[in-house]
Write a structure and sequence with these properties.
about 140 residues; alpha+beta; 2 helices
């Protein structure tokens, strides 16, 4: 029997290493997906539509993104949008209005986040709409 050359195991070794690397990459992706999976609160608005709220915060610097709005704290509501339109934003604004009133805020910023592939934040896009309280009515700030 002729002895095998050390290079004859090369293709098998490379296949094993490739499989090990692929398994390792899959494990890393699974861990990242579990750790950074989106957390949201499901809420139903008076119209009956259900929305997934990502975050509700008070932000004192976000008004600077809207030229027609004076610098003031705003209630920011980020949610997963289905249609990414003004009608959805109005429904979320109506949901957020009591929270803004309770905090004596005159500005609500609705951040519509739309998934591109999945709800994982690196794979989304969106838009923001600002509503300011003028004489007891919420108006879209342009």
């Amino acid at each position: 029997m002729e002895p095998r050359s050390p290079t004859s195991n090369g293709p098998r070794l490379w296949r094993r290493l490739l499989l090990i690397a692929a398994a390792g990459l899959a494990a890393v992706i699974a861990v990242v997906a579990i750790v950074y999976r989106p957390h949201y609160i499901r809420t139903q608005v008076p119209s009956g539509n259900t929305y997934d709220i990502i975050q509700v915060t008070v932000d004192s610097g976000i008004a600077g993104l809207f030229p027609s709005v004076r610098q003031e704290p705003a209630l920011v509501v980020n949610y997963y949008a289905r249609m990414n339109d003004e009608e959805e934003a109005r429904e979320i604004r109506d949901f957020a209005a009591p929270m803004a009133h309770e905090r004596r805020l005159h500005l609500i910023v609705i951040q519509q986040t739309t998934p591109i592939l999945v709800r994982w934040l690196p794979f989304v896009h969106g838009q923001m709409l600002a509503y300011r309280l003028v004489v007891g009515q919420w108006e879209l700030a342009h």
